[in-house]
Known about the structure:
The structure is a single chain. By secondary structure, the chain is of the alpha+beta class. The chain has helices at 2-31, 68-71, 75-87, 89-110, 159-225, 231-266, 296-299, 301-322, 367-433, 439-473, 491-494, and strands at residues 61-62, 116-127, 138-154, 288-289, 327-338, 350-359. The chain has one domain (29-115, 156-325, 368-494): Outer membrane efflux proteins (OEP) (Up-down Bundle). It has 11 helices and 6 strands. Strands 2-3-5-6 form a 4-stranded antiparallel sheet, with no helix packed on it. Helix 8 (301-322) packs antiparallel against helix 9. The radius of gyration is 39 Å and the shape is elongated.
Amino acid sequence: MAEHAxxxxxxxxxxxxxxxxxxxxxAALAGCGTLAPRPAEVAPPIPADxxxxxxxxxxxxxxxxxxxxxxxRDPLLQRLIRITLDNNRDLRIAALRAEEAxxxxxxxxxxxxxxxxxxAQGARARVPGGLNASGVSVVGGEYRAEVGLSSWELDLWxxxxxxxxxxxxxxxxSEAGRHAVELALVxxxxxGYLGLRELDERVALARRxxxxxxxxxxxxxxxxxxxxxxxxxxxxxxxxLTQAQALLAQLELARAQQAHALGQLVGAHPGPLPEAxxxxxxxxxxxxxxxxxxxxxxxxxxxxxxxxRLRAANANIGAARAAFxxxxxxxxGWGSASAELDGLFDSGSRAWTFAPVLSLPIFDGGxxxxxxxxxxxxxxxxxxxxxxxxxxxxxxxxxxxxARRWLGEQRDVQRVALDAAAERxxxxxxxxxxxxxxxxxxxxxxxxxxAAEQQLVQARRALLxxxxxxxxxxxxxxAGRVPAAxxxxxxxxxxx
Length: 496
């Protein structure tokens, strides 16, 4: 009977051990799946093709494969962009945000692995006789040295995995955001540089006009002194001169302010910015192809960042769902223990502990359910933000394409207007010289000629600015530099 009574508990323990192993295996297999919902199917709210796009654009180079060094050919502009990328504070903050997200991902990733550590401790205590059965005070000690396993969660339901995935997507979103800041800075520096070159040319035109009209005023002053010109004609010539001088002063002020703004954007002293630099359109930009609207989804850094944030929100839902299932954590240690320090590593002092903990909150006031609802709402917000970023990108590209087309026509019309104004000024001067017209006609023609010259420069600059905006809107130079939303670095790579 004694043997039979002993056999039953052993068999029960064996069955129990097998049952626990089978249960853990089943739970582990179940944990191989995912509790995160299927990624939201977001239909891009954009048409299949660009409206009013000329077929000739198809032969141009896609913006995503054109780096800013190849797109902006002016050596001075390239130098300014390099200085900006090295010194701009906004870009530095974006880079640090990416490093912060990378560190947060590595912290969360470490939760998947058990943490091992060496622990050594010693203690001595005196117990009074009144507190033990012998009635005699006892001095005792305990010394332990062991390799321990801290509380390690068995990720049977994927909670830790989903949290790691969320941190990874947040890191990738911050990396794409850094590239978005970099692209925006490149576009801002290029546009600021074009504005400076525009003002240089307008200042040069105004100075030339001031010199010409100053000479005319000197001649008419001399003619007035000898009685060959009237006071009215002299005041008309003086009016032309003062108008040109006022315009020159305004342009000089605007040029100085533009240079200061560009210097602040660069983030460091940009060095000498020579005036009257070439304003040649062929040396500044190259032709771009807008490709298809769907290409924006893999070219625009801000869209890629929004998609990564959407994936992070989706993973957070999986983690919130996993919180409804039991959590199993393991704690243990193996080493040596002794009542005396000199016997810590003697034979027979081996000691070990193993403490699995199963926890499942029964009542938490609706905290887990509210956390799940919060995660679901945040995913809806991420979907809306993703759709909004796509709509914003499409509008920016469409605006830039329209500006490139119509500003090009405006520039051509302005060139014709300038030729007409120059011819009119020449004919008016001839009529005045032959006594067929009053000097007021020359005054109007000269004023219109100066305005036409200024407007042509402004039209040329506006066209170039539209091409800069198109480059930025198409995600210029992003191919191979911004990780797509479908690309996730492996754990081994991300740990480096």
